[in-house]
Amino acid sequence: MTSEDLRRFLSPDAVAELLDVTVDDVHELIQTGELLAIRVGTRGPWRIEADHLERFIADQYEVARRVALWQQAELANIPELADGRIM
């Protein structure tokens, strides 16, 4: 097993540190299904695959991009913000 294989799975603590959030935030993301994780054993600890964390981060960037575009589109319809023109 290589060191890369050992880093395949992350604990909620490690994910919380990487994202600069609390462990409770990570557990909430797992419970809501926003962040995919597996449980080791029936009552064991949660583990998050590094690839799933990367996908989660990419998805969050996409959500932020879409929200920004939506807000720009909403503001474009306000005459005061569109140089007095209705777009």
Kindly describe this structure.
Helices cover 56% and strands 9% of the residues. The radius of gyration is 19 Å and the shape is elongated. The protein has helices spanning 3-6, 12-19, 23-32, 50-76, and strands at 9-10, 38-39, 46-49. The longest helix is centred in the last third of the chain and has 27 residues, at 50-76. The chain has a single domain (3-81), classed as Multidrug-efflux Transporter Regulator, Chain: A, Domain 2, CATH 1.10.1660. The termini are far apart. The protein has a three-stranded antiparallel beta sheet with strand order 1-3-2. It is mainly alpha-helical and 87 residues long. Helix 2 packs across helix 3 (23-32).
Give the key terms.
56% helix; mainly alpha; single chain; Multidrug-efflux Transporter Regulator, Chain: A, Domain 2; 3 strands; 87 residues; elongated
Encode the helix/strand succession as letters.
Answer: HEHHEEH
Order of strands in the sheet with the most strands? Answer: 1-3-2
Tell me the total number of β-strands.
Answer: 3
Q: Roughly what percent helix? A: 55-70%
What structural class do the secondary elements suggest?
Answer: mainly alpha
Mean model confidence by pLDDT: 85
CATH class membership: Mainly Alpha
Query: Under the CATH scheme, which architecture would be assigned?
Result: Orthogonal Bundle
The span between the termini is 60 Å
Question: What's the gyration radius in Å?
Answer: 19 Å
Low-confidence stretches: none
* Domains, number: 1
The CATH topology label is Multidrug-efflux Transporter Regulator, Chain: A, Domain 2
* Strand proportion: 5-15%
Instruction: Count the DSSP helices.
Output: 4
Major beta-sheet overview: 3 strands, antiparallel
